[in-house]
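Lab notebook page, bench 4
Experiment: in silico fold of construct C2
Operator: M.H.
Input chain length: 168 residues
Purpose: comparison with the prior construct
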Amino acid sequence: MNHAFAAQPTSRLKIRQLATEIRRRMGLESEYCFPIVHFLEMYMMIDPKFCFEVVECHELPHDYAETLPQQNLIRVREDVYHNAIKGDGRARFTLAHELGHLLMHSNGVIALARNESIHKYMDPEWQANTFAGELLVNPGLCVGRTAVFIAEKSKVSLQVAEIQLSKK
């Protein structure tokens, strides 16, 4: 039997508020493109407990990256890291997704759900995906814009831009 994991319930609004606060503290309220690689590298220098590791691809053969919240650690494959530096939307989303896990799930409140069906707002993967979209696409700059424009300016995939535009 497959089991799902459940996190504390969190709404898109609360996740958006967290992403907006991060952008505000960095002085990026009017920027389209969130500098996720720079943020993770800077976060590592500011918080000595946080560790961001770039590992060889064979160390994560089945994942692009992983977060170990209790260890305050994000590990990312080197190809994903280098693609994120180049502005690849999928790689940037992966890093933001892992940051979402670290920020929202490090208090150890992820639990095994006894049934396979959990509400999406309790799904840690939905929460991390939602955080990534909210962080990488500034909702205040989406009004009157197309998904193609948002994808190019925010350096995200067209799919992420479309989802974020539908959630403004």
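Observations: The mean pLDDT is 88. Residues 9 and 122 are 5 Å apart (CA to CA).
Next step: discuss at group meeting.
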